[in-house]
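Reminder to self: keep the SMILES exactly as supplied, no canonicalising. Ligand is S-adenosylmethionine.
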Amino acid sequence: MLADRITRHLGNPSHGLWGWILKKFFERNNRFLEATAVKLCNIQPGNVVLELGFGPGLGLQEAARRLTHPPGKLYGLDISEYMHDVASERMRAEIQAGKVKLFVGSVEQIPLEEGVVDRVYHCNCYYFWPDLRVGSREIRRVMKPGGLMVTTLRLELLQKMVAAGLLKGTKWQPELYMEALLESGFVDVRMEDHPMNGEMFQAIFAAAKEA
Ligand SMILES: C[S@@+](CC[C@H](N)C(=O)[O-])C[C@H]1O[C@@H](n2cnc3c(N)ncnc32)[C@H](O)[C@@H]1O
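Structure tokens returned for the bound complex:
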């Protein structure tokens, strides 16, 4: 079915026509949500930051701009090789300078040491994770105590997509993700509504408990 096919590609855009169309779609529609996730993260110039599911890399550009002092460093992890290629091209200068490092892989196995990341953000991404609890635990593992995680989403759009037959079999409901975050040792887990060009979008916050 077409809806299932689109859902599959949204969760792992591949090289080819579908991937290219979705890349254009993300670039056209998601800049604001990506930029806002970065803004709400309150990144400090020397922070170590991780973006999950970076897609074409618009949020990476925003975050890298804020990391102006060493040891400021930006990591990105996306399961799609195509998105990794696109974002690597977009971030070529910063990667060459050693300020940004991008990985292909899943949130279930983040290729970073324990307790090294100050800020984690992601946008339109958790719906596709195979297991929200495993993903949340893994995020918590790599974060420093006192660190902050932010994700942005458009709940109304998600509901419309579901009504259209998309996202079948995914865990798109924010409550499910928030439950998983709490169970993984995050504190102050909350969702806020924010205005966006006459609509609303949502931001979920979760803090890694201080030691
Ligand atoms: C809908 S796209 C959103 C891309 C971008 N964040 C945006 O908002 O434009 C979802 C992204 O999450 C990535 N993704 C899906 N499952 C993932 C996982 N388990 N681990 C890491 N990335 C994942 C996909 O490859 C894709 O790039």
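Points to follow up:
Residues 95 and 101 are 6 Å apart (CA to CA).
The chain has nine helices and seven strands.
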